[in-house]
Design a protein that fits this description.
pyridoxal phosphate, 2 domains, four-stranded mixed β-sheet, amino-acid biosynthesis, seven-stranded mixed β-sheet, Aspartate Aminotransferase, domain 2, alpha/beta, Ac/SucOrn_transaminase_bac, Aspartate Aminotransferase, domain 1
C-alpha cells in the first residue's frame, strides 16, 4: 500500500537544507507539470536546466525500459556497451579524447580539479598546485567544489576548506593577470555564469584566459554543467567562444534528469588520472549512459539546436514586451535558453518574489541570485507553451508590483 505524504512530511523526515514550496508535482509531460491537486504549470525552469527534452520524453522512456531489462549496474572492474558508446560520441563531437563518468556536476568538477592538480604534480612538481576561479562562480557542493566556487556563503561553517585557491572578477583580465603565476595549475571558468547571475563570458576575455593558461602551463577547465548539451544553441558553449579548454565538465541536461555527469579531457591531461587515482561506484553505469546517449542523439541535431536560437528570440521579445509595459527589468541577457532578467534597483533583492508569484499563476521559473530571474526551459518547449508561460509571467509581475505598491 502506498503511504500518503504531504508537504508537512518534508519537515518531519528530511534534513532542512532545502525549503521547498508547497507544490508537490506528481506528473509531467513535455513542458507541462501537474501537482497533487491537479493544477497545471508551464515549466520555464527545467529542473534547473536539466530536463532539456521536457518531462517523460517518449524516446527516453523507451530507452530506460529497454535498458532496465538488460543491465542496471556493473562494478567498475569491467566496462559496458552504453558507457563506451556514449564516451565515443562525446569524444567525436567535442575537443576531448578521454571521458570520465560520474553521477553529477559536482562530482565531474571534483574529478576535474583533482586532475588539474595531479597533472601539474606529474609534470612540474608539488609547488604548482594553485587553482584560480572567479567570483560568483558555482561549481558544486563538495568541500573542494564550494572552495573553487566563488560564493563565500557556501563555505561558511565548513572551514577549514581546501587551500591553494584564488578568485578574481569574471571578465576582468587585468585581475587574472595579477593572480596567475608559475604556481597556477588551472584556471576554472563557466562560459556563462549560471548561479552567479547569467553572465556570459566576453569572447576577448576567454581568448586571453586561454593564452594565459598556455603561457603558464596551466590547464583551462570549463564548467559546462549548466551551459552544456545544447543549452546555448551549440552542443557546448565553448564552441561559440572560439576557445578550446583542456578539460570540460558536463551533467544536468546530459541525463535529462537521470543522474549522470562526465569530465571530458584531452589525452595529454587525462593521462594523469592513471589507474587507481580516482573512481566512482555508480559513474558510467549502463542505465545512465544509455539514457545520456539517447539525449545526445536527440539534441545534437540541426533541428533542435537551431530551434534553441529561435526560442531564445521568442523569450527575449516576450520579456522585452513585459518590460516595456511594467519596467521591472534593467537587463535581459543570456545565451540560447539560459536567460536572465535582472530586476530594477527599486526591486533589488526581490527576484524570489517573482518566482513565488509565478508559481501561484501556474508557471515554474528560477532565480540566479537575489536580483535575477532565470529561465532554463526545455530546448524543445512548444511555442504555444512559451506564449502561455509569458502570459502567466506577466500576471505574476503585475501581482508583485501591486504588493510592492500596497
Amino acid at each position: 500500500m502506498t503511504q500518503q505524504v504531504t508537504r508537512a512530511t518534508f519537515d518531519e523526515v528530511m534534513v532542512p537544507n532545502y525549503a521547498p514550496s508547497e507544490i508537490i508535482p506528481v506528473r509531467g509531460e513535455g513542458s507541462r507539470v501537474w501537482d497533487k491537486e491537479g493544477k497545471e504549470y508551464v515549466d520555464f525552469a527545467g529542473g534547473i536546466a536539466v530536463t532539456a527534452l521536457g518531462h517523460s520524453h517518449p524516446t527516453l522512456v523507451n530507452v530506460m525500459r529497454e535498458q532496465a531489462g538488460q543491465l542496471w549496474h556493473l562494478a567498475n572492474v569491467m566496462t559496458n556497451e552504453p558507457a563506451l558508446r556514449l564516451a565515443k560520441k562525446l569524444t567525436e563531437k567535442t575537443f576531448a579524447d578521454r571521458v570520465f563518468f560520474a553521477n553529477s556536476g559536482g562530482e565531474a568538477n571534483e574529478a576535474a580539479f583533482k586532475l588539474a592538480r595531479r597533472y601539474a604534480f606529474d609534470h612540474f612538481g608539488p609547488e604548482k598546485h594553485e587553482i584560480i576561479a572567479f567570483n560568483k562562480a558555482f561549481h558544486g557542493r563538495t568541500l573542494f567544489t564550494v572552495s573553487v566556487g566563488g560564493q563565500a556563503k557556501y563555505k561558511e561553517g565548513f572551514e577549514p576548506t581546501p587551500g591553494g585557491i584564488a578568485h578574481c572578477d569574471y571578465n576582468d583580465i587585468a585581475q587574472l593577470k595579477a593572480l596567475i603565476s608559475d604556481k597556477t595549475c588551472a584556471v576554472v571558468m563557466e562560459p556563462i555564469q549560471g548561479e552567479g547571475g547569467i553572465i556570459p563570458a566576453d569572447k576577448e576575455f576567454a581568448k586571453q584566459v586561454r593564452e594565459l593558461c598556455d603561457k603558464y602551463n596551466a590547464l583551462l577547465v570549463f564548467d559546462e554543467v549548466q551551459s552544456g548539451v545544447g543549452r546555448t544553441g551549440t552542443l557546448y558553449a565553448y564552441e561559440q567562444l572560439g576557445v578550446t579548454p583542456d578539460v570540460l565538465t558536463t551533467a544536468k541536461a546530459l541525463g535529462n534528469g537521470f543522474p549522470v555527469g562526465a569530465m571530458l579531457a584531452t589525452e595529454a591531461a587525462a593521462k594523469s588520472l592513471a589507474f587507481g587515482t580516482h573512481g566512482s561506484t555508480y559513474g558510467g553505469n549502463p542505465m545512465a549512459c544509455a539514457i545520456a546517449e539517447a539525449v545526445i542523439d536527440i539534441i545534437d541535431t540541426p533541428e533542435v539546436l537551431s530551434g534553441v536560437n529561435k526560442r531564445h528570440d521568442l523569450f527575449f521579445e516576450g520579456l522585452k514586451t513585459i518590460n516595456a509595459k511594467h519596467n521591472v527589468f534593467k537587463d535581459i541577457r543570456g545565451m540560447g535558453l539560459l536567460i536572465g532578467a535582472e530586476v530594477v534597483d527599486s526591486l533589488s533583492g526581490k527576484a524570489a518574489m517573482f518566482m513565488k508569484a509565478a508559481a501561484e499563476e501556474g508557471l515554474f521559473v528560477l532565480v540566479a541570485g537575489p536580483n535575477v530571474l532565470r529561465l532554463a526551459p526545455s530546448l524543445i518547449i512548444p511555442e504555444t507553451d512559451i506564449t502561455e508561460g509569458l502570459v502567466r509571467l506577466e500576471r505574476a509581475v503585475i501581482k508583485v508590483l501591486a504588493s510592492e505598491a500596497a
